[in-house]
């Protein structure tokens, strides 16, 4: 409250002293430019920066099923000589099961009662909270009667026990066992210690530890604080699962959605394509368990009230890696994957794939309307493959909206070729990506002013201002980047007749596991925060309105004149007019806004301000709201509002028509 009063006082004094700009902004509330699509602002999720395993997917045990390339990665045996059972108390060895899925398990042989243990390190440790319950589960098959009990303990970085439970095991067949651990203190770097009582052999698999406090309290669910941050963005769509992981470095390592559904123990583990992509951030322990698979993505979209937008391989591996191609006459299985996915999402429960959805606990359809073919492919090979996909999908599902791609760049030969050819094919929506400097974003706020509103619609599917350079590990989520993105977004919104979907990328990053910067949301094992870029996205998404209307000064849209950028919309559900103005200058700007077509406004209105005087300022785990929105009340006069726009600020004004 004190901060809001101070903000109001400063704003008033600034308005009195600021030099008025060249004329008012005229908002014509009766002249609708375009309908604002419900999908205008959404979320792009890719498993990069440990965003899934070790992040959104709340599993705490790394390599729970011993399926990494090195099957014992993530596991240590501190009191064992792993080369000779004769020299110590026991040894754990990965064994092949002969099964098609989850082909390994762990064989533990305990030689004596000296306390042989296995320890799992988690994902840069395990984040556990005091007093909260954690569900432990595992599969075990003892050989003989030698081992009858197994002790599980959460231990801190000081090796002190935080929580423990002893589980009795018996019989020779595989069985699932469960227990609950409740830590007595919070710890960001906990580990799971397993100690065996007795002597003999026990086989183990699928050793898992989950917080009970997941999103919607689902077992094997998602991390609550991270989904809450997503939910507060009010996303109109969820694009998944990427990103370049859709393509894979090779086709064998592409993302195959059918391998990510069904029982967890039947989902194949895959090395993540980002594990050693960047020399500056190698992560050889980065794998995908697919506990967060396509069913969970659809469920998350439903929870968020967002349209699901899956992206599938078009038969081209990442062109920045191998560029491996499926021959055109061998493309049918890839096309069938797309058709089967639509049936999985939308088919009746008596259809083959609809039945699988029902058996997973969701008989109701997911009502999928969009599907993307390819991620960042370019050139004639992509156009040829997209054309075949488009014909096959439309033949069976004529109402499905298909998203194509213009490649990884916002201009140049590949972009121009792709756009030209996709227009010839009457593509419905074209995905454009741009990772550029803050200056580029400010200078290109009018990018879509020049697009044909009758042509293909645009999906601004991946964008983020780069403070240093694309893919630089030194990029920062600073205020200049966020402010510049806000300036650019005014142009996206003003051109809602062309732009139907937008999303920042990448979405998430673990503070100790990242490969790429900048990112919208950062987290460690216990905490998370939204960057200034996050608050820009949230501010626009929660104030988008329903219809775009003109916001002109001297008859022109504000696209950087006097360092100001503006857009306006109606919200017919609340009878409000919403004006967004971005001030990218270091000076206070006195600006009058006149609402034409309105005889009188209600006397009180609100303004939300996102501002910082330091362009290098950032948020952090211990300063999560250093840059965050502040609301205050302002007065109107008849059909006019007088504003004092603080330096380096994003301003959202909501006025209600009388």
TrEMBL record:
Residue ranges of domain Alpha-L-arabinofuranosidase C-terminal in the record: 461-649
InterPro entries documented for this protein: Alpha-L-AF_C, ASD1_cat, GH, Glyco_hydro_b, Glycosyl_Hydrolase_51
Enzyme class: hydrolase
One annotated GO biological process: L-arabinose metabolic process
Keyword terms, alphabetized: Glycoprotein, Hydrolase, Signal
This enzyme's EC code(s): 3.2.1.55
Reactions catalysed, as given in the entry: Hydrolysis of terminal non-reducing alpha-L-arabinofuranoside residues in alpha-L-arabinosides
Gene3D superfamilies found in the cross-reference section: Galactose-binding domain-like, Glycosidases, Golgi alpha-mannosidase II
GO MF term set: alpha-L-arabinofuranosidase activity
Family the entry assigns: Belongs to the glycosyl hydrolase 51 family.
The protein's name: non-reducing end alpha-L-arabinofuranosidase
Organism whose genome encodes this protein: Sinomicrobium oceani
Lineage: Bacteria, Pseudomonadati, Bacteroidota, Flavobacteriia, Flavobacteriales
